[in-house]
Design goal:
It is built from 11 helices and 5 strands. It is an alpha/beta fold. The chain is elongated, with a radius of gyration of 24 Å.
């Protein structure tokens, strides 16, 4: 019995069912191209495979960016190095190669509010995303709040995995609030689980000797710093606030 030949629409539907949306989207175009350029079936199939690969790569990029939860997009090129001469552009471009992520190393951006700490952390996050790395951005206090709330509904272990799984975790605004023993232990748990397994970028307005005033438990402070500083680049940002300079 002769097998029925599927119509173009039926083939496109089958491709969607097989989760080949990239092929389905360009099928009509590629069939027309095949007629105009006298392409062989193998050449058409090759083009459709490229279309599928491109769509999947773009979807992955969008998915990674969404999961990163970046508050805004700021590139290294947008940073005014002339305004903050304490930050060396060459050093930032070297970090932008994301070798520190491969090595599971950490970065501290230390400086007063408005000096560009968050900007540079986001810029490095964008570079990491380009390399296909998973990224998560959060403020320290938002993370602590989520962990504390997760104890109530018994989802603490799941929430810990949320913060330990990404290749790069950005913890913004450390030092604006002190952490007591319980919340400090939550912070330590994240640092400990990520130690030599994933990178952390921390932005803080407190110099390292001042961390004793952030974590009330001094023993905990030592344990946290010991793990963070073992593989770490410390960038101290001096000067006035960029936002204050551009105030209305």
């Amino acid at each position: 019995m002769k097998q029925a030949v599927l119509t173009e629409g039926a083939v496109a539907q089958k491709l969607k069912e097989f989760r080949l949306a990239g092929m389905a989207a360009t099928l009509e175009l590629r069939l027309k191209q095949a007629v105009e350029e006298d392409l062989s079936p193998l050449e058409v199939l090759g083009l459709l495979c490229e279309d599928e690969a491109n769509v999947r790569e773009e979807n992955k990029r969008k998915r990674l960016y969404k999961q990163a939860r970046l508050p805004y997009a700021k590139a290294i090129e947008d940073f005014e190095f002339a305004f903050q001469p304490s930050v060396k552009k060459a050093a930032m471009l070297d970090l932008a190669t994301c070798g520190f992520v491969e090595k599971h190393a950490n970065i501290f951006f230390i400086g007063q509010p408005g000096t560009g700490k968050t900007h540079l952390s986001i810029a490095l996050a964008l570079e990491a995303l380009k390399f296909g790395k998973t990224v998560l951005f959060t403020t320290v206090w938002d993370m602590i709040t989520m962990l504390q709330q997760s104890r109530a509904d018994y989802s603490y272990k799941k929430r810990l995995q949320w913060y330990t799984k990404p290749d790069l975790l950005i913890l913004d605004e450390l030092g604006y609030r002190s952490l007591d023993k319980t919340t400090g232990e939550d912070f330590y748990e994240i640092v400990s689980r990520r130690y030599e397994r994933g990178s952390i970028i921390i932005t803080t307005n407190r110099s390292i000797p001042e961390w004793d005033s952030v974590f009330i438990d001094k023993t905990l402070t030592t344990a946290i710093l010991d793990r963070l500083i073992h593989h770490c680049s410390v960038i101290e940002m001096k000067g006035e606030s960029y936002r204050y300079k551009h105030r209305d």
